[in-house]
Protein backbone atom coordinates (compact mmCIF):
# COMPACT_ATOMS: atom_id res chain seq x y z
CA UNK A 1 0.00 0.00 0.00
CA UNK A 2 1.43 3.35 -1.01
CA UNK A 3 2.02 5.97 1.65
CA UNK A 4 2.48 8.69 -0.95
CA UNK A 5 0.92 11.93 0.22
CA UNK A 6 -1.84 13.23 -2.02
CA UNK A 7 -1.32 16.73 -3.42
CA UNK A 8 -3.52 19.39 -1.88
CA UNK A 9 -6.00 20.69 -4.45
CA UNK A 10 -7.59 24.10 -5.00
CA UNK A 11 -9.86 25.93 -7.42
CA UNK A 12 -9.04 29.10 -9.37
CA UNK A 13 -11.68 31.10 -11.27
CA UNK A 14 -10.13 33.33 -13.93
CA UNK A 15 -12.10 36.41 -14.96
CA UNK A 16 -11.57 39.21 -17.41
CA UNK A 17 -11.93 42.16 -15.04
CA UNK A 18 -13.81 45.43 -15.22
CA UNK A 19 -13.33 49.07 -14.29
CA UNK A 20 -16.74 48.77 -12.64
CA UNK A 21 -16.35 47.89 -8.95
CA UNK A 22 -19.84 46.34 -8.89
CA UNK A 23 -18.62 43.80 -11.45
CA UNK A 24 -15.72 42.86 -9.18
CA UNK A 25 -18.08 42.36 -6.26
CA UNK A 26 -20.45 40.21 -8.32
CA UNK A 27 -17.61 38.01 -9.54
CA UNK A 28 -16.72 37.46 -5.90
CA UNK A 29 -20.27 36.21 -5.29
CA UNK A 30 -19.74 33.46 -7.87
CA UNK A 31 -16.55 32.42 -6.09
CA UNK A 32 -18.49 32.38 -2.82
CA UNK A 33 -21.21 30.23 -4.38
CA UNK A 34 -18.64 27.80 -5.74
CA UNK A 35 -16.94 27.62 -2.35
CA UNK A 36 -20.25 26.42 -0.91
CA UNK A 37 -20.24 23.60 -3.47
CA UNK A 38 -16.65 22.60 -2.60
CA UNK A 39 -16.33 23.33 1.13
CA UNK A 40 -13.19 21.21 1.52
CA UNK A 41 -11.18 23.00 -1.18
CA UNK A 42 -9.64 26.48 -1.23
CA UNK A 43 -11.36 28.62 -3.87
CA UNK A 44 -9.77 31.82 -5.20
CA UNK A 45 -10.45 34.11 -8.12
CA UNK A 46 -8.56 36.75 -10.09
CA UNK A 47 -8.76 38.94 -13.18
CA UNK A 48 -6.70 39.51 -16.30
CA UNK A 49 -6.89 43.28 -16.05
CA UNK A 50 -8.50 46.36 -14.51
CA UNK A 51 -9.46 44.62 -11.28
CA UNK A 52 -7.94 43.20 -8.14
CA UNK A 53 -7.04 40.55 -7.28
CA UNK A 54 -5.40 39.67 -10.56
CA UNK A 55 -4.95 36.03 -11.54
CA UNK A 56 -1.37 35.99 -10.31
CA UNK A 57 -2.52 37.07 -6.84
CA UNK A 58 -5.23 34.42 -6.71
CA UNK A 59 -2.71 31.75 -7.64
CA UNK A 60 -0.32 33.08 -5.01
CA UNK A 61 -3.04 32.73 -2.40
CA UNK A 62 -3.65 29.10 -3.32
CA UNK A 63 0.07 28.29 -3.23
CA UNK A 64 0.40 30.00 0.17
CA UNK A 65 -2.30 27.63 1.43
CA UNK A 66 -0.19 24.65 0.39
CA UNK A 67 -2.07 23.87 -2.83
CA UNK A 68 -0.04 21.83 -5.31
CA UNK A 69 -2.75 20.99 -7.86
CA UNK A 70 -4.99 23.75 -9.18
CA UNK A 71 -8.22 23.35 -11.11
CA UNK A 72 -8.50 26.57 -13.13
CA UNK A 73 -11.66 27.52 -15.01
CA UNK A 74 -12.31 30.59 -17.17
CA UNK A 75 -15.13 32.71 -15.79
CA UNK A 76 -16.30 33.46 -19.30
CA UNK A 77 -19.38 32.58 -21.30
CA UNK A 78 -17.65 31.69 -24.55
CA UNK A 79 -14.12 30.85 -25.64
CA UNK A 80 -12.77 33.93 -27.38
CA UNK A 81 -9.30 35.51 -27.24
CA UNK A 82 -9.02 35.88 -23.47
CA UNK A 83 -10.09 32.31 -22.69
CA UNK A 84 -8.14 30.82 -25.60
CA UNK A 85 -4.90 32.80 -25.35
CA UNK A 86 -4.46 35.21 -22.46
CA UNK A 87 -5.52 33.10 -19.49
CA UNK A 88 -3.55 30.03 -20.66
CA UNK A 89 -0.51 32.28 -21.06
CA UNK A 90 -0.76 33.47 -17.46
CA UNK A 91 -1.33 29.96 -16.10
CA UNK A 92 1.50 28.41 -18.13
CA UNK A 93 4.00 31.08 -17.12
CA UNK A 94 3.01 30.81 -13.45
CA UNK A 95 3.26 27.03 -13.46
CA UNK A 96 6.76 27.16 -14.96
CA UNK A 97 7.92 29.50 -12.24
CA UNK A 98 6.61 27.20 -9.47
CA UNK A 99 8.20 23.73 -9.70
CA UNK A 100 5.95 21.02 -8.30
CA UNK A 101 2.79 22.96 -9.03
CA UNK A 102 0.32 21.47 -11.53
CA UNK A 103 -2.45 23.55 -13.09
CA UNK A 104 -5.24 22.01 -15.18
CA UNK A 105 -7.27 24.45 -17.24
CA UNK A 106 -10.93 23.67 -17.84
CA UNK A 107 -13.54 24.78 -20.36
CA UNK A 108 -15.47 28.01 -20.72
CA UNK A 109 -19.06 27.95 -19.45
CA UNK A 110 -20.45 27.54 -22.97
CA UNK A 111 -24.01 26.58 -23.80
CA UNK A 112 -24.56 24.12 -20.99
CA UNK A 113 -28.18 23.38 -20.15
CA UNK A 114 -27.63 25.10 -16.82
CA UNK A 115 -26.56 28.33 -18.52
CA UNK A 116 -29.48 28.26 -20.94
CA UNK A 117 -31.95 27.63 -18.14
CA UNK A 118 -30.46 30.44 -16.04
CA UNK A 119 -30.82 32.82 -18.98
CA UNK A 120 -34.40 31.75 -19.63
CA UNK A 121 -35.23 32.16 -15.95
CA UNK A 122 -33.94 35.74 -16.02
CA UNK A 123 -36.10 36.45 -19.08
CA UNK A 124 -39.22 35.00 -17.47
CA UNK A 125 -38.54 37.00 -14.32
CA UNK A 126 -38.28 40.24 -16.30
CA UNK A 127 -41.67 39.46 -17.83
CA UNK A 128 -43.16 38.83 -14.40
CA UNK A 129 -43.63 35.13 -15.16
CA UNK A 130 -42.83 32.07 -13.08
CA UNK A 131 -39.94 30.16 -14.71
CA UNK A 132 -41.34 26.94 -13.23
CA UNK A 133 -44.78 27.51 -14.80
CA UNK A 134 -44.12 29.32 -18.09
CA UNK A 135 -46.74 30.10 -20.74
CA UNK A 136 -46.99 27.89 -23.81
CA UNK A 137 -45.72 30.64 -26.04
CA UNK A 138 -44.85 34.33 -26.28
CA UNK A 139 -45.84 34.87 -29.90
CA UNK A 140 -46.69 38.52 -29.29
CA UNK A 141 -43.17 39.33 -28.10
CA UNK A 142 -39.84 39.93 -29.84
CA UNK A 143 -36.68 38.68 -28.11
CA UNK A 144 -33.42 40.55 -28.69
CA UNK A 145 -30.41 38.77 -27.20
CA UNK A 146 -27.38 41.00 -26.64
CA UNK A 147 -24.08 39.15 -27.00
CA UNK A 148 -20.68 40.45 -25.97
CA UNK A 149 -19.36 40.53 -29.52
CA UNK A 150 -15.72 39.67 -30.20
CA UNK A 151 -13.24 39.26 -33.04
CA UNK A 152 -13.70 35.50 -32.64
CA UNK A 153 -16.25 34.25 -35.19
CA UNK A 154 -17.04 31.08 -33.26
CA UNK A 155 -17.84 32.99 -30.07
CA UNK A 156 -20.20 35.28 -32.00
CA UNK A 157 -21.84 32.23 -33.54
CA UNK A 158 -22.42 30.73 -30.09
CA UNK A 159 -24.41 33.82 -29.10
CA UNK A 160 -26.57 33.43 -32.21
CA UNK A 161 -27.01 29.74 -31.44
CA UNK A 162 -28.15 30.62 -27.93
CA UNK A 163 -30.77 32.96 -29.38
CA UNK A 164 -32.21 30.20 -31.53
CA UNK A 165 -32.32 27.71 -28.66
CA UNK A 166 -34.02 30.13 -26.27
CA UNK A 167 -36.47 31.26 -28.95
CA UNK A 168 -37.61 27.71 -29.65
CA UNK A 169 -37.71 26.80 -25.96
CA UNK A 170 -39.78 29.83 -24.96
CA UNK A 171 -41.80 30.39 -28.13
CA UNK A 172 -41.22 34.05 -28.94
CA UNK A 173 -42.80 35.56 -32.02
CA UNK A 174 -39.34 36.36 -33.35
CA UNK A 175 -35.80 36.56 -32.01
CA UNK A 176 -32.51 37.99 -33.15
CA UNK A 177 -29.03 38.75 -31.84
CA UNK A 178 -27.23 42.08 -31.53
CA UNK A 179 -23.78 42.71 -30.04
CA UNK A 180 -22.21 45.28 -27.77
CA UNK A 181 -18.62 44.69 -28.87
CA UNK A 182 -16.49 44.58 -31.98
CA UNK A 183 -18.85 42.73 -34.31
CA UNK A 184 -22.19 43.66 -35.90
CA UNK A 185 -25.01 44.55 -35.65
CA UNK A 186 -24.48 46.89 -32.71
CA UNK A 187 -27.22 47.28 -30.13
CA UNK A 188 -28.60 50.62 -31.27
CA UNK A 189 -28.76 50.03 -35.00
CA UNK A 190 -29.86 46.43 -34.46
CA UNK A 191 -32.84 47.52 -32.36
CA UNK A 192 -33.85 50.10 -34.95
CA UNK A 193 -33.87 47.47 -37.68
CA UNK A 194 -35.84 44.98 -35.57
CA UNK A 195 -38.49 47.50 -34.54
CA UNK A 196 -39.63 47.50 -38.16
CA UNK A 197 -41.05 44.03 -37.59
CA UNK A 198 -43.92 45.71 -35.77
CA UNK A 199 -43.84 44.01 -32.36
CA UNK A 200 -45.35 46.08 -29.54
CA UNK A 201 -43.42 44.25 -26.83
CA UNK A 202 -39.65 43.76 -27.07
CA UNK A 203 -37.51 41.94 -24.54
CA UNK A 204 -33.84 42.97 -24.55
CA UNK A 205 -31.84 40.26 -22.79
CA UNK A 206 -28.06 40.74 -22.33
CA UNK A 207 -26.22 37.43 -22.13
CA UNK A 208 -23.64 38.69 -19.66
CA UNK A 209 -22.45 37.31 -16.37
CA UNK A 210 -21.95 40.59 -14.55
CA UNK A 211 -22.57 44.31 -14.69
CA UNK A 212 -20.03 46.76 -16.10
CA UNK A 213 -19.69 49.54 -18.61
CA UNK A 214 -21.13 47.48 -21.44
CA UNK A 215 -24.26 46.58 -19.47
CA UNK A 216 -24.79 50.23 -18.61
CA UNK A 217 -24.23 51.22 -22.22
CA UNK A 218 -26.80 48.64 -23.35
CA UNK A 219 -29.30 49.96 -20.82
CA UNK A 220 -28.66 53.47 -22.08
CA UNK A 221 -29.35 52.43 -25.69
CA UNK A 222 -32.59 50.74 -24.72
CA UNK A 223 -33.74 53.69 -22.61
CA UNK A 224 -33.07 56.06 -25.51
CA UNK A 225 -34.90 53.94 -28.07
CA UNK A 226 -37.80 53.43 -25.65
CA UNK A 227 -38.20 57.17 -25.13
CA UNK A 228 -38.30 57.70 -28.88
CA UNK A 229 -40.86 54.91 -29.36
CA UNK A 230 -43.47 55.23 -26.58
CA UNK A 231 -45.85 52.87 -28.38
CA UNK A 232 -43.53 49.91 -27.79
CA UNK A 233 -43.08 48.21 -24.43
CA UNK A 234 -39.36 47.59 -23.92
CA UNK A 235 -38.49 45.08 -21.19
CA UNK A 236 -34.90 44.85 -19.99
CA UNK A 237 -33.82 41.48 -18.66
CA UNK A 238 -31.21 41.46 -15.87
CA UNK A 239 -27.84 39.84 -16.56
CA UNK A 240 -27.09 36.37 -15.18
CA UNK A 241 -25.05 37.28 -12.09
CA UNK A 242 -24.89 34.51 -9.45
CA UNK A 243 -28.06 32.69 -10.47
CA UNK A 244 -27.99 29.19 -8.88
CA UNK A 245 -27.87 27.54 -12.30
CA UNK A 246 -24.80 29.63 -13.16
CA UNK A 247 -23.08 28.27 -10.05
CA UNK A 248 -24.16 24.80 -11.21
CA UNK A 249 -22.44 25.45 -14.54
CA UNK A 250 -19.19 26.48 -12.85
CA UNK A 251 -19.40 23.40 -10.66
CA UNK A 252 -19.80 21.23 -13.77
CA UNK A 253 -16.62 22.64 -15.28
CA UNK A 254 -14.61 22.02 -12.11
CA UNK A 255 -15.92 18.47 -11.79
CA UNK A 256 -14.95 17.77 -15.42
CA UNK A 257 -11.34 18.43 -14.43
CA UNK A 258 -11.59 16.43 -11.23
CA UNK A 259 -13.05 13.43 -13.01
CA UNK A 260 -10.64 13.61 -15.94
CA UNK A 261 -13.38 14.23 -18.49
CA UNK A 262 -11.59 16.95 -20.47
CA UNK A 263 -10.05 14.58 -22.98
CA UNK A 264 -13.14 13.47 -24.85
CA UNK A 265 -11.70 13.47 -28.32
CA UNK A 266 -11.61 17.23 -28.62
CA UNK A 267 -8.61 19.45 -27.97
CA UNK A 268 -8.58 21.25 -24.63
CA UNK A 269 -8.17 25.04 -24.42
CA UNK A 270 -4.70 24.63 -22.92
CA UNK A 271 -3.52 22.08 -25.48
CA UNK A 272 -4.86 24.27 -28.27
CA UNK A 273 -3.04 27.28 -26.85
CA UNK A 274 0.30 25.49 -26.62
CA UNK A 275 -0.01 24.02 -30.10
CA UNK A 276 -0.92 27.34 -31.70
CA UNK A 277 1.68 29.28 -29.76
CA UNK A 278 4.43 26.87 -30.80
CA UNK A 279 3.27 27.23 -34.40
CA UNK A 280 3.41 31.03 -34.21
CA UNK A 281 -0.35 31.37 -34.62
CA UNK A 282 -1.10 33.18 -31.35
CA UNK A 283 -1.00 36.86 -30.51
CA UNK A 284 -0.55 36.93 -26.73
CA UNK A 285 -1.13 40.38 -25.28
CA UNK A 286 1.46 40.09 -22.52
CA UNK A 287 1.00 43.70 -21.50
CA UNK A 288 -2.23 42.76 -19.77
CA UNK A 289 -2.14 38.98 -19.62
CA UNK A 290 1.11 38.68 -17.68
CA UNK A 291 1.46 40.09 -14.18
CA UNK A 292 4.93 41.31 -13.29
CA UNK A 293 5.48 42.20 -9.65
CA UNK A 294 7.04 45.71 -9.65
CA UNK A 295 8.84 44.87 -6.42
CA UNK A 296 10.46 41.75 -7.86
CA UNK A 297 13.29 42.61 -10.24
CA UNK A 298 14.10 38.93 -10.70
CA UNK A 299 10.78 38.27 -12.36
CA UNK A 300 10.86 38.41 -16.11
CA UNK A 301 9.81 36.32 -19.05
CA UNK A 302 9.60 32.61 -18.41
CA UNK A 303 11.53 30.08 -20.44
CA UNK A 304 8.23 29.25 -22.14
CA UNK A 305 7.75 32.89 -23.14
CA UNK A 306 11.28 33.30 -24.42
CA UNK A 307 11.03 30.16 -26.54
CA UNK A 308 7.56 30.86 -27.87
CA UNK A 309 7.12 34.64 -27.95
CA UNK A 310 6.16 34.43 -31.60
CA UNK A 311 3.04 36.15 -32.81
CA UNK A 312 0.86 35.71 -35.81
CA UNK A 313 2.49 38.25 -38.10
CA UNK A 314 5.96 36.86 -37.51
CA UNK A 315 7.02 39.82 -35.36
CA UNK A 316 8.71 39.28 -31.99
CA UNK A 317 8.12 42.13 -29.55
CA UNK A 318 11.05 43.36 -27.54
CA UNK A 319 11.58 41.98 -24.05
CA UNK A 320 10.76 45.39 -22.58
CA UNK A 321 7.38 45.41 -24.28
CA UNK A 322 6.52 41.92 -23.09
CA UNK A 323 7.55 42.70 -19.53
CA UNK A 324 5.90 46.07 -19.16
CA UNK A 325 2.39 45.51 -17.85
CA UNK A 326 1.44 49.18 -18.04
CA UNK A 327 3.21 50.28 -21.18
CA UNK A 328 2.06 53.26 -23.15
CA UNK A 329 -0.50 52.02 -25.65
CA UNK A 330 -0.29 55.07 -27.87
CA UNK A 331 -1.45 54.42 -31.40
CA UNK A 332 1.15 56.15 -33.45
CA UNK A 333 1.43 53.06 -34.79
CA UNK A 334 4.84 51.65 -34.22
CA UNK A 335 4.00 48.96 -31.66
CA UNK A 336 3.93 45.28 -32.47
CA UNK A 337 0.68 43.53 -31.68
CA UNK A 338 0.76 40.97 -34.42
CA UNK A 339 -1.41 43.17 -36.55
CA UNK A 340 -0.77 46.40 -38.37
CA UNK A 341 -2.71 49.60 -38.75
CA UNK A 342 -2.19 51.88 -41.70
CA UNK A 343 -4.19 54.83 -40.48
CA UNK A 344 -3.05 57.97 -38.74
CA UNK A 345 -5.15 57.63 -35.63
CA UNK A 346 -3.05 59.25 -32.92
CA UNK A 347 -4.99 59.03 -29.68
CA UNK A 348 -2.82 58.29 -26.68
CA UNK A 349 -4.05 55.21 -24.83
CA UNK A 350 -2.39 53.88 -21.71
CA UNK A 351 -4.98 51.39 -20.60
CA UNK A 352 -3.01 48.19 -21.22
CA UNK A 353 -5.86 46.46 -23.00
CA UNK A 354 -6.23 44.93 -26.43
CA UNK A 355 -8.56 43.05 -28.74
CA UNK A 356 -8.04 40.74 -31.67
CA UNK A 357 -8.19 42.13 -35.17
CA UNK A 358 -11.67 42.00 -36.68
CA UNK A 359 -11.85 42.03 -40.46
CA UNK A 360 -15.34 43.55 -40.56
CA UNK A 361 -14.47 46.44 -38.25
CA UNK A 362 -15.82 48.86 -40.88
CA UNK A 363 -19.25 47.23 -41.24
CA UNK A 364 -21.91 50.00 -41.43
CA UNK A 365 -23.87 48.40 -38.56
CA UNK A 366 -20.86 47.54 -36.40
CA UNK A 367 -18.56 49.35 -33.94
CA UNK A 368 -18.37 52.49 -36.08
CA UNK A 369 -21.96 53.18 -35.00
CA UNK A 370 -20.65 53.61 -31.44
CA UNK A 371 -17.88 56.12 -32.21
CA UNK A 372 -18.27 59.14 -29.94
CA UNK A 373 -19.70 57.10 -27.09
CA UNK A 374 -16.56 56.00 -25.35
CA UNK A 375 -15.94 52.99 -27.59
CA UNK A 376 -12.85 51.06 -26.57
CA UNK A 377 -9.83 52.66 -28.20
CA UNK A 378 -8.55 49.22 -29.19
CA UNK A 379 -11.44 49.11 -31.64
CA UNK A 380 -10.70 52.70 -32.67
CA UNK A 381 -7.15 51.65 -33.51
CA UNK A 382 -8.45 49.24 -36.15
CA UNK A 383 -10.45 51.80 -38.13
CA UNK A 384 -8.92 52.91 -41.43
CA UNK A 385 -8.24 56.54 -42.34
CA UNK A 386 -11.25 56.43 -44.62
CA UNK A 387 -13.62 55.35 -41.83
CA UNK A 388 -12.18 57.87 -39.38
CA UNK A 389 -12.68 60.62 -41.95
CA UNK A 390 -16.28 59.56 -42.55
CA UNK A 391 -16.98 59.54 -38.81
CA UNK A 392 -14.81 62.54 -37.90
CA UNK A 393 -17.74 64.54 -36.52
CA UNK A 394 -18.06 61.94 -33.75
CA UNK A 395 -14.38 61.72 -32.83
CA UNK A 396 -12.14 63.98 -30.70
CA UNK A 397 -13.58 62.76 -27.43
CA UNK A 398 -17.00 64.37 -27.86
CA UNK A 399 -19.32 61.77 -26.35
CA UNK A 400 -22.28 64.13 -26.17
CA UNK A 401 -23.22 63.78 -29.82
CA UNK A 402 -25.98 61.49 -30.98
CA UNK A 403 -24.75 58.06 -31.97
CA UNK A 404 -24.85 57.11 -35.62
CA UNK A 405 -27.11 54.21 -34.68
CA UNK A 406 -29.78 56.58 -33.40
CA UNK A 407 -29.77 59.15 -36.13
CA UNK A 408 -32.82 59.51 -38.33
Determine the number of helices (DSSP H or I, runs of at least 4 residues). Answer: 14
Q: How many β-strand stretches? A: 8
Q: Any idea what the radius of gyration is?
A: 22 Å
Q: Note the run of SSEs as H and E.
A: EHEHEHEHEHEHEHEHHHHHHH
The helix-and-strand class reads alpha/beta
Protein name: Sirohydrochlorin chelatase
Organism: Marinomonas arctica
Region (Disordered): 325-361
InterPro entries: CbiX-like, Sirohydro_Cobaltochel/CbiX
Describe this structure in words.
The protein has 408 residues and is of the alpha/beta class. The chain has three domains: 1-108 and 261-325, Rossmann fold (3-Layer(aba) Sandwich); 113-236, Rossmann fold; 329-408, no CATH class. 37% of the residues lie in helices and 12% in strands. The chain contains 14 helices and eight strands. The protein has helices at 21-37, 55-64, 81-96, 113-126, 153-170, 187-195, 213-228, 244-258, 269-278, 286-289, 303-308, 319-323, 377-380, 385-390; strands spanning 9-15, 43-47, 69-74, 102-105, 138-147, 172-179, 201-206, 233-236. Strands 2-1-3-4 form a four-stranded parallel β-sheet, sandwiched between helices. Strands 6-5-7-8 form a four-stranded parallel β-sheet, sandwiched between helices. Strand 1 (9-15), helix 1 (21-37) and strand 2 form a beta-alpha-beta unit. Helix 6 (187-195) packs parallel to helix 7. The protein is globular and about 70 Å long. The chain starts with 8 loop residues before the first strand and ends in an 18-residue tail after the last helix. The model is unreliable at 286-354 and 398-408 (pLDDT under 50). InterPro entries: CbiX-like (IPR002762), Sirohydro_Cobaltochel/CbiX (IPR050963). Keywords: Lyase, Metal-binding.
Amino acid sequence: MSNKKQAKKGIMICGHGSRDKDAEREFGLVAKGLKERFPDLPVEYGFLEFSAPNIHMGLDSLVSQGVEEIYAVPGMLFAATHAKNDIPSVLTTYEEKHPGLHITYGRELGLQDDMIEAFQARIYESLGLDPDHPPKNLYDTLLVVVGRGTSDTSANAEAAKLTRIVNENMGFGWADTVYSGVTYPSVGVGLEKLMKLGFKRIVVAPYFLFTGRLIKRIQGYVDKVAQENPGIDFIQTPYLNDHPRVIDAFQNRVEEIMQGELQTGEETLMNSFKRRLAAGEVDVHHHHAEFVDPQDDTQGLSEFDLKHAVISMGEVPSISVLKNHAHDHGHGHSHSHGHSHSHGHSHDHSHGHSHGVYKHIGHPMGPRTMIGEGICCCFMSQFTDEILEEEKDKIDGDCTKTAFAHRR
